[in-house]
Design brief:
- The protein is α/β, with parallel strands linked by helices and about 270 residues long.
- The protein has one domain: Rossmann fold (3-Layer(aba) Sandwich), CATH 3.40.50.720.
- The protein is built from 8 helices and 7 strands; from the N terminus they run βαβαβαβαβαβαβαα.
- The chain is globular, with a radius of gyration of 19 Å.
Length: about 270
């Protein structure tokens, strides 16, 4: 019997991660859902009619290496190697470097958004490399969820912008490392940079969010980009155009545009 393909998704308890899980389920994939809130994922899976033959739930914290690596190893033991691994877990918190306690904000954002991404990929790389020795295997893909916020720095958003810029560079480095040599197809590395998506992460933003997308619309476009193996995609495309223009602006012009604009709010906690 032909086994349905498997996708492993972190940050799958809400927002983009949950929407991606639903899109893959609709396409006939088995889904391994990973987040700290196992009960939320389990309840969602039941609501969607996803039984234990189509969905596995793992409670894990990507900021703790042992936790996410253990979840990945459990997934491989139970269902085999995923064809697609999506490192989606991430947080966004405003910070002020002048406030000493906000250094802890930066540390936590980097621990989840960057180290968590690497720890998510780590347990799959060697098994995937072993599989890609066989050129008949289906493409194996690692997906990093970045953000257009990683393209230029925004006031009050230093932690998040820096972390997502790091995701873009990290995935680019990893793509070069895992590219196949002659006779080998290699492991595909895909970077997806969302614009504004209506999720709990963006719901507290107090500034305009142009081209705001629903999670479902984003997930559909991301699914297609991942299946195509597109190395880097900004979704929606309109934000890609804006991002390119902002990247080309001289610093003096960019600073002038941002002058007087509201900054990302600090976390009151």
């Amino acid at each position: 019997m032909h086994m349905q393909p498997l996708v492993f998704i972190t940050g799958a308890s809400s927002g983009i991660g949950q929407a991606l899980a639903l899109r893959y389920h609709q396409a006939g994939w088995r889904v391994a859902l990973v987040a700290r809130r196992a009960e939320v994922m389990q309840a969602w899976a039941q609501d969607q009619g996803l039984g234990p033959d189509r969905c596995l739930v793992f409670a894990a914290d990507v900021s703790e290496n042992a936790s996410i690596i253990n979840a990945a190893e459990q997934c491989i033991t139970a269902w085999g190697l995923p064809q697609v691994v999506i490192a989606n877990a991430g947080i966004s918190q405003g910070m002020d470097t002048g406030e000493r306690q906000d250094l802890a904000v930066l540390q936590r954002v980097m621990a989840i958004n960057n180290l968590g991404l690497a720890a998510t990929f780590h347990p799959f790389i060697r098994p995937m490399q072993a599989c890609t020795q066989n050129t008949d295997t289906a493409p194996l893909t690692l997906v990093g969820i970045a953000s257009v916020a990683g393209i230029r720095g925004l006031p009050g958003h230093a932690a998040y912008c820096a972390s997502k810029a790091a995701v873009i560079s990290y995935c680019e480095s990893l793509r070069g490392e895992l590219r196949g040599s002659r006779g080998q197809q290699g492991i595909r590395v895909v970077t997806i940079a969302p614009g504004y998506v209506a999720t709990p992460l963006t719901s507290k933003n107090k500034y305009p969010m142009p081209f705001l997308m629903t999670p479902e619309a984003f997930a559909d476009k991301a699914y297609k980009a991942i299946q195509a193996g597109t190395s880097y995609s900004v979704i929606p495309w309109q934000m890609g155009v804006v991002a390119k223009l902002l990247r080309l602006l001289p610093n003096s012009w960019f600073d002038r545009i941002l002058q007087g604009q509201p900054r990302k709010h600090r976390d009151p906690s």
